[in-house]
Task: inverse folding
């Protein structure tokens, strides 16, 4: 992609995520990304495994704004480019990279309710080494939650506790590798009596 491009979240019509993703493929100067997972659907007579979007109602796209704004909005199924006021808000490229790493791994990944603040952890070794997020303890399993701040959506992955290492909770900015797309990071904070600790992933 050319310099000056950033990642944005596109709000799309219900059940149009894959159609929009295909429509973006035919546009010059625009890169689409639709993270998905295997979802088991149970009917009365059969069980079927389907590809489902990790972030229902959204598709990610990297392009130069405002130069490629109109072609993006003309893709059938696109409702808008997510932002504040009249300007779109670019996503941190590090968030996109983290989601790419999760969906390309062999670990089970699925959508998760958005969580904002808490204790950060980093995966110390294995296929997801270096990925950061939030640790949640649930009975006999541990989950790490990775969040997309702009969409207030999260995804989770089941992990062995032994691969996790603690990260000190400090506030910092998260610059994009492209310089132009810079993002302030939330300061992690504990959730009081709640045993689940959460934070926006880098």
Result:
């Amino acid at each position: 992609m050319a310099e000056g491009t950033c990642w944005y979240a596109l709000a799309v019509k219900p059940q149009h995520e894959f159609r929009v993703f295909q429509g973006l493929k035919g546009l010059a100067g625009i890169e689409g990304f639709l993270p998905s997972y295997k979802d088991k659907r149970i009917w009365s007579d059969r069980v079927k495994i389907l590809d489902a979007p990790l972030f229902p109602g959204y598709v990610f796209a990297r392009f130069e704004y405002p130069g490629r704004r109109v072609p993006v909005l003309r893709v059938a199924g696109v409702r808008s480019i997510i932002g504040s006021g009249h300007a779109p808000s670019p996503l941190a490229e590090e968030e996109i990279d983290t989601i790419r790493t999760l969906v390309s791994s062999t670990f089970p990944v699925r959508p998760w309710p958005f969580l904002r603040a808490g204790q950060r952890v980093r995966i110390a070794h294995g296929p997801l080494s270096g990925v950061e997020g939030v640790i949640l303890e649930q009975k006999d399993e541990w989950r790490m939650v990775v969040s997309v701040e702009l969409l207030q959506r999260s995804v989770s992955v089941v992990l062995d506790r032994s691969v996790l290492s603690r990260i000190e909770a400090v506030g910092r900015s998260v610059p994009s590798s492209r310089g132009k797309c810079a993002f302030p990071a939330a300061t992690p904070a504990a959730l009081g009596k709640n045993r689940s600790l959460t934070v926006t992933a880098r």
About this structure: The chain has three helices and 16 strands.
